From TrEMBL:
Domain Sugar 3,4-ketoisomerase QdtA cupin, chain residue ranges per copy: 3-130
InterPro entries: QdtA_cupin_dom (IPR008894), RmlC-like_jellyroll (IPR014710), RmlC_Cupin_sf (IPR011051)
Top-level taxonomic group: Bacteria
Pfam families: FdtA (PF05523)
Organism for this UniProt entry: Dyella nitratireducens
Record protein name field: Sugar 3,4-ketoisomerase QdtA cupin domain-containing protein
Amino acid sequence: MQIQRVQLQQHGDERGMLVALEKDRNVPFEIRRVYYLFATKNRVHRGQHAHRHLNQLAVTVRGSVTFLLDDGSGPVEVVLDDPSQGLLLGSMVWREMYDFSDDCVLMVLADQLYDPADYITNYDEFLREVNNPMLPARVSHTPPTADAEPLGLRRAAPSVELDVQSSTPSLALSPHRTSDRRPVALATEECEKRGLGDVAACQSR
């Protein structure tokens, strides 16, 4: 899976802390676009798409958020809640974000400008493309820096706590297969097809 956790070096003293994001040091691609999400409403799901070529680094500057990520082998959840940790997302990874804390500010660095043609917004289409070996090889970010480590996502039933370093918090990783939690975009489509007006109630079934 094209997903990695990056421990970002912190600088600071009694006055406060600072983290610098720099190309080829802790960001393994050219930074061409930066955006951030804030004031996200309660129970809102963001994302709900994959990128064919785009590579990104996500950092929760403040607060916390849960990512649902899928490379075609089944979704897993990752909680991002530390401004000194980043989450590298390569190409062809379905992502949804939810459970935003009230104070969450999620910043995302990208290696390309906005391109609607790069988005896959239908989950079934994403599965067809990611599992089709006849499609051209996908573009991914360059090899990670020394501080980047694989998240170790795998088909494991119990919830797992991944240790980063003894002196820093860890990312909570709770794998869920599609039988347990389906991406909300696909669940919404199914609810609409079944003619169920209350989509929220339908999705909880």
